[in-house]
Structure formats: C-alpha cells, structure tokens
Amino acid sequence: MEENPSESEKGMWKLSVDGSSCLTGSGAGLVLTSPDGWTLEYALRFKFKATNNEAEWEALIAGLTIAKHLEVQRIETSSDSQLVVGLANGEYEAREELMEKYLAHF
C-alpha cells in the first residue's frame, strides 16, 4: 500500500545526525533525505578535540549547511542528543559558553 503524505509533509527534507567522541578522536555522521527519498550520507572526522555534545552540534550545523547549499526550504531534523535537541527547541538554557556559541550559530 502506498502512503499518501499529508500536506505538511510534502516537500519536507529529513536530516538525521549523530556525533561521537572518544580517546582516539571525534567525528559525526549525518543522513539527509529528500522528499523523493534519495539520500546523502556523510561521515565527518574532526581534526580537533570535541566532546560528544560538541560533535553533535558540529553534525547538526554541517547538515544544515549542506541543506542550505542545496536550497532546501523545509527540513525536519533529528538527533539522539537530549542536550542539543533541548537547546535547539528552547527547552533548555545554555549554561556553558561554548554551548551558548553553538546555539547562537544554530
């Protein structure tokens, strides 16, 4: 059975991001999916030390930057980072200077 997307979902791109940090380095992955279903997948390795939260922000910002270059008009994002999602949605308040900078850039 074929799904019929609602009016609110038409033209909606989807961005899924995840960041990671460990002793050997940090990086992120992101998947950008068009309304037609084709996907762009990216793996990023950072040349700087980053915490998990910083890697999550970097993934989100990279994904949104790519979407902007593709002239995406409507996008829905998802992340497994409670902090990043809470800050981005305005549910949390940034307490650290670096998180404030990421939020301001976002």
Describe the structure.
The protein has 106 residues and is of the alpha+beta class. The protein has a single domain (13-105), classed as 2-Layer Sandwich (Nucleotidyltransferase, domain 5), CATH 3.30.420.10. Helices cover 32% and strands 30% of the residues. It contains three helices and four strands; from the N terminus they run E-E-E-H-E-H-H. It has helices at residues 52-69, 82-88, 97-105; strands at residues 13-22, 25-33, 39-46, 75-79. Strand 1 and strand 2 form a beta hairpin. Helix 1 (52-69) runs parallel beside helix 3 (97-105). The longest helix has 18 residues, at 52-69. The chain is globular, with a radius of gyration of 15 Å. The N and C termini lie far apart (39 Å).
Task: Offer a few descriptive terms.
single chain; 106 residues; four-stranded mixed beta sheet; 30% strand; globular; nucleic acid binding; RNaseH_sf; RVT_3 domain-containing protein; RNaseH-like_sf
Quick overview of this protein structure:
By secondary structure, the protein is α+β, with helices and mostly antiparallel strands. The protein has a single domain, classed as Nucleotidyltransferase, domain 5. It contains 3 helices and 4 strands.
CATH topology: Nucleotidyltransferase, domain 5
Radius of gyration: 15 Å
Name given to the CATH architecture: 2-Layer Sandwich
Q: How do the strands of the widest beta sheet line up side by side?
A: 3-2-1-4
The arrangement of helices and strands along the chain is: EEEHEHH
Average pLDDT taken over every residue? 88
